[in-house]
C-alpha cells in the first residue's frame, strides 16, 4: 500500500518535471516564432512597399522566406494567421514531453487510487492531481481535432503551478473515505467538475490570446512593430474567439451536469438538493458567469473582447473555487483533507 | 429572421449582477445553511454584525436585493421568451426563404459544371429536383424557387433548404424550464417542512409536532400533513479505521439501526446511513450527526432518584469526539442544580491537568462535571436550549476558584455531590469485564424533511438539460442548390450554406451535399 503511494508521488513529481521541461520547450517555440516573424517582416519590407505590410505573408518551410502578397483581405473573417509558422522541433518536443508527462501522471493517479482503494479524488491533493491530469488530457485530445499546440505555454504553466502547489502544500497521506463521501456521486460529480475545468482552461487561454490579438489587429501595426511578435503566427482574433466559444460551451455543459449531479448527491447526503452552502454558491456563480459569456456572444457590443473577459473571469472563479474556497471557506464541502 | 433581441443586453447585465450578488452569500455565514456560524459571527464582530444584518447579509438568498435581481431577470426572461415563442411558431410554418441572387457572396460556396462527359444527363430542373430529394432525406425543409433571366444572370432554378429549428426550440425549452424550476421552488417550497430530532439509542421519536427538537414549516404547512409513524433507534454502530495509521480512528461508517412503526404497516427494521436516507411516510429521514449521550443518575441524600437520563453531549471535535453537555436538575434537591460536563471517549491527561480525547471510540471513557447551584432559568416559561447552561448568577461549587475538584467519573462509578446535595452516578449501559464497549449510549441526530418540490424540479432539470444540449449543439443552417442550363447543354450548379451562430461543421456539410448530389446525378468517379 504505502509503497504504491510513494511510487505515485514519485511518478507525479516526474510528471511535473516533464511538464516543466515542456513549458520551456513551448516558450522556446514562442521565441522561435517571434524570430520567424521578424525575418518575415524584414522580407516584406524589402520585397514590397511599406504600405502593403499588412498583406498576407507566408513563410514557407525550407530555405529562406517566400513572400506571397495578396490584395487587401477579401473576407473580414479570414482566419489564416499572418505568418505561417514553420515546423518546429521545439514545439514537437514540447508536445512529446507533454504526452510523456501525461503517461506518468496517469500512472501516478491510478496508483494513488489503487493504494487508497477508491477513486483518487477525495481530498484537495487528489483533486489537484486528477484535475490537472484532466486538463492535460483535454488539451491533448482536443489537439487531435484542432491544432491548439500554441496554447501549450499557458496549459503547461497552469498545470506545473497547480501541481507544485498541490504536492507541496496540500499533500496528505492515503486515508479512507469518510462516510459523507461514500457515494457513487463522488465519482460522477467530481469527475465532471474536473473535466469541465479542462475545457474551461482551454477557453480561458484562447480568450487571452483573442484579447491580445484583437488589440494588435485594432492597432493595425505592421508585423515588424508587434510587441509580441509570435502573435503573428497565431490565428486571427475572430478565429480564436470561435475556438474559445466552442471549448467553453463544452465546459459549460459539463459544468451544468456537475451542478445537477451535485444537487442529487446533496439531496441524498444532506436532505436538500440546494442549500446555498459556500461551495454551492460558487458553483452557481461560475455557472451564471459562463451563461453570461454565452449571452454576451449574442449581445451587440459584447461580442468579442468583452465576452473574452467574461471567459477569463469565469476561469478565474473556477480556479478560485478549486483552491481558495476549498481551503479557506467553511462549509459542508470541507473535504480538502487539510 | 436572425435578428438580435434588443433586451439581450439587459438580460446579460442582470445575469452578471446575479453572479455578483451571490458572492456575499459565501463570505458571510448564512442563517439558512449555517445558523451557528451567524451566532458566532455576532460574537466575534459585535459592531459589524448588526450593520450587516440590516442589509440582510446573513440572509442573502432571501434578501430583498437578491430577490429583486432574480425577479427582474425572470421578468426579462418572460418578456424575451414569449415573443420568441410566437415568432418561432411562425418560423416553423414558414417556407424556407427565397434563394439569394448571388450565392457566391456566401462564405461556404462552391460551383461545378456537369455535362455528358461527366455522365450527367440531367438539366437544371432535374438536377434541382434531385437536390431537393437529397436535402429532404437529410432532414431539411425545402422549397423550390425559379428566377427568370436578368441582365446580369441567366434563368435559374434553385432549392432553398433549412434545418435545425430544433436549436431554437431547445433554447426556448431551456429558458422556459428555468422558469418552471423557479415557480416550483417558489410555490412548492411552501408546502414542505424540515425538522430535527436527536434520538438516543433505545429511545423513540414519534412524528408529531411536539416531538421535534426544532421544526421549520413552509408557508402553507398544515400539521395534518405529518404522517403518523414512530421510529426507535435500536443501535448506532460506528466503524473506525484501525489499520491505516495515517487515518487511525477516522470514522469510516455510521449505521443507525432503527425500527419504524406505521399505523397499518406494522414494524420494519431498517438502517439509515449518511448518503442513504430512509424514505418513510412522505418524509425523508437523514442521518446528519451523532455523538455520545452519557446516562446520568442523580439521587437526593436519602437515595431517591431525582434525575436519570441519557444526556446528548455535543461533539466539539469530530475526530476525537471530545464532547460538551449540560445536566439540569430542577426539582428534588434542596436547590436547583446545573452541571456543565465534558466527555472524553478515550481520555488522556494533558500536562496542565486537563484532559483530552485521543480516539473517538470508548477505550477509556471519562466524564468530568462542574456543579452549579442557583436559578436554572427554566421556570420563566422561556424555552432554553438543552445544550447550554447560563451560569451567570449561579454559584459554582466545583472547579475554577472554588478549590473543590471537578467531578470525574468513569462508566459505572458514582460519587457525592458537593455540599451534601446528594449523589451522582455515571451509569454503565453495558457492564462487562475488560471492555467499555457499549458502556455509553450514542445518539443520532436526524433531519426529517418533506419536500414537495423535488419532482417538479427534477422534471425542470431534465428539460433544462435537453434544451441546453439541443440549443448548443444542433446546428441551424440554410443550404441552397441553384442550377443553370448552359447553352452548350451542360448544367452549372452552385452550392452555398449559411449558419446561425457557431457552426464549425457547415463547410463540411455543404461539401458533403455537393458530393452526394454529384453522385445522385450519376457523375463518374473512378
Ligand atoms: C434566468 C436567466 C437566464 C439564464 C440562466 C440563461 C442562460 C442561457 C444559456 C445557458 C444559454 C445558452 C444555451 C441556449 O442557447 O439555450 C442562453 C442562450 C440564450 N439566451 Fe438566455 N438565459 C437567461 C435569461 C435570458 C433572457 C432574459 C433572455 C432574453 C433577453 C435570454 C436570451 C437568450 C438568447 C437569445 C440565447 C441564445 C444565444 C445564442 O444563440 O447564442 N436569456 N441563455
List keywords for this structure.
heterodimer; A: 338 residues; mainly alpha; 8 helices; 0% strand; flat; B: 526 residues; alpha+beta; six-stranded antiparallel sheet; five-stranded antiparallel sheet; 9 helices; 32% strand; elongated; disordered N terminus; binds protoporphyrin IX containing FE
Poorly predicted parts of chain A: 48-77
Which bin fits the share of residues in helices of chain A? 55-70%
Number of domains of chain A: 1
Low-confidence stretches of chain B: 1-6
Spatial extent as radius of gyration of chain B = 38 Å
Q: Report the C-alpha radius of gyration of chain A, rounded.
A: 22 Å
Helical stretch count of chain B? 9
Chemical compounds bound to the protein: protoporphyrin IX containing FE
Number of strands of chain A: 0
Mean pLDDT of chain B: 88
Number of strands of chain B: 26
- Largest β sheet strand count, sense and barrel closure of chain B: 6 strands, antiparallel
The portion of residues forming beta strands of chain B comes to 25-35%
Question: Quick recap of the structure?
Answer:
With 338 residues, chain A is an all-alpha fold.
Description:
The complex is a heterodimer of chains A (338) and B (526). Chain A is mostly helical and 338 residues long. Chain A has one domain (4-328). Helices cover 67% and strands 0% of the residues of chain A. Chain A contains eight helices and no strands. Chain A has helices at 2-47, 89-116, 124-145, 152-169, 184-219, 237-270, 278-296, 305-328. In chain A, α3 (124-145) packs antiparallel against α4 (152-169), α5 runs antiparallel to α8 (305-328) and α6 runs antiparallel to α7. Chain B has nine helices and 26 strands. Chain B has 526 residues and is of the alpha+beta class. Residues 1-6 of chain B have low confidence and may be disordered. Helices cover 26% and strands 32% of the residues of chain B. The two termini of chain B are 43 Å apart. Chain B has helices spanning 8-22, 24-27, 35-44, 48-54, 64-93, 124-137, 165-188, 454-473, 506-520; strands at 108-114, 141-147, 156-163, 193-200, 204-206, 214-217, 230-240, 251-262, 266-272, 278-280, 283-293, 295-299, 305-310, 314-315, 323-329, 337-344, 347-349, 355-357, 366-373, 395-396, 407-409, 414-416, 423-427, 441-450, 476-485, 491-500. Classes of the chains: A mainly alpha (338), B alpha+beta (526). The interface between A and B is large, with 57 and 56 residues. Protoporphyrin IX containing FE sits between chains B (5, 7-8, 11, 15, 73-74, 76-77, 80, 171, 174-175, 178, 467-468, 471-472, 501) and A (291, 294-295, 297-298). Protoporphyrin IX containing FE (HEM) sits between chains B (5, 7-8, 11, 15, 73-74, 76-77, 80, 171, 174-175, 178, 467-468, 471-472, 501) and A (291, 294-295, 297-298).
